[in-house]
Amino acid sequence: MAKPFFRLQKFLRRTQFLLFFLTAAYLMTGSLLLLQRARVALPQGPRAPGPLQTLPVAAVALGVGLLDSRALHDPRVSPELLLGVDMLQSPLTRPRPGPRWLRSRNSELRQLRRRWFHHFMSDSQGPPALGPEAPRPAIHSRGTYVGCFSDDGHERTLKGAVFYDLRKMTVSHCQDACAERSYVYAGLEAGAECYCGNRLPATSVGLEECSHECKGEKGSVCGAVDRLSVYRVDELQPGSRKRRTATYRGCFRLPENITHAFPSSLIQANVTVETCSGFCSQKEFPLAILRGWECYCAYPTPQFNLRDAMDSSLCGQDPEAQRLAEYCEVYQTPVQDTRCTDRRFLPNKSKVFVALSSFPGAGNTWARHLIEHATGFYTGSYYFDGTLYNKGFKGEKDHWRSRRTICVKTHESGRREIEMFDSAILLIRNPYRSLVAEFNRKCAGHLGYAADRNWKSKEWPDFVNSYASWWSSHVLDWLKYGKRLLVVHYEELRRSLVPTLREMVAFLNVSVSEERLLCVENNKEGSFRRRGRRSHDPEPFTPEMKDLINGYIRTVDKALRDHNWTGLPREYVPR
């Protein structure tokens, strides 16, 4: 029995070796045939030059990306250096290969690139390679290029408004934004960041240190890392938004110590709102205060927090009487309060992994804006939204588990997703408002409104039927599986911003000054709030939809109370 088994094993070994040998021989034969086909050319007589061959060689080089168009006008670059003498004397007229071995146009282009590169590398006496031309100050902007300035992230050179566009930033875009806010200078940094201000340091750095191109404008200089390309803003571009004017904030009682509360002042006969606002804008103050013929500039402070407005008639007296009174008119200037605009990643990885959880459309992006400006640290995201990243939410692109951000946005629910976090801020909004906001975002983006055809289509009722239950299950899951929660109602955050935000910041274990919180309140709107109302805004909810949503409201309200939280705000009560 063993002998036949041994013979079978020996036969199989021989067969395996034979198959291996035949496979290797087959592959080697195929390789030799391919090499032979690549080298063999069967002349069949001359042919008419093709479209590629009728072009001058320099044009061919341009077409395949070998040359920059500026190289053709450079006297230092000889045609022989670029493509070889034999290729420049006449168009490419190679004998036509046989139809079986016909070369493709791509093969000709590859050979052209190879020959140019070989000749270029072997010519040690030729001129150096032409690199890309350095960016230049924009010549189409209406502002005057001032120079390149150093910009320290801790002490900004231009301390006015700040905004980002990491995809479409241009010099004109930045100039218009600064001119609209009544700033004199517009500075661009790192190709995508725009800073505004009214004062510059006395000395600048070399122009060559500003070497980054603008993200949305090739060939224009937009600073570099820690370097600002500064333009003086002369006037708004045609078609841009109008220059902002002062906004009336109300009539307020004067603080006890005017000199301490109002750092800058102007006393002038017949002073107007425009004069006072312009004076304070030039000084980069967000508030302009009028008291008779006296103009003061200030920031919101604990001593002057703009919370207790008085009757406007108390400030409506003639200038002399008003000057002797204890009241003043307060106006918001176009400039931005910059005491809370600096942001960065956490210096060390966070030991506590915190979620900022909400149902879509509940104001998560707005809450992130408030948290970032209050704490000075970026927030992260479980997702990636390029629109948010382009507008300055730099934590959007950071990995959500990096722990370099103060908290992480999420709309997820379910036990596994929730238990990944050590704690969470649970942001809840009226489901009627949340559903409308999320439907608008899905149909028209962060700042747009859904068209009437979207509301009238089957898409809207289907959306409500599926998303209303998600609103309820999202809150219930976080209440059930969340390890440590802070429940925040969107409506309460809007109504009492500073106290609610102070509670959120304390939950994140960050110490923040009262002045910074007041700065956030002064800049509370951010860049992602829908402004105005739709021209046609009918009631989108049918009675059947209301019955469905009201049932979920009662369920969530009961669950909150069962977990020792206050119930939903009164305005959530079924309507």
Automatic annotation (TrEMBL):
Belongs to the WSCD family. GO terms for molecular function: sulfotransferase activity. This is WSC domain containing 1. It comes from Macaca nemestrina (Pig-tailed macaque). The keyword NAD does not apply. SUPFAM superfamilies: P-loop containing nucleoside triphosphate hydrolases. The keyword RNA-binding does not apply. Residues 142-234, 245-340 form the WSC domain. It comes from the Eukaryota. It holds the Pfam family Sulfotransfer_1.
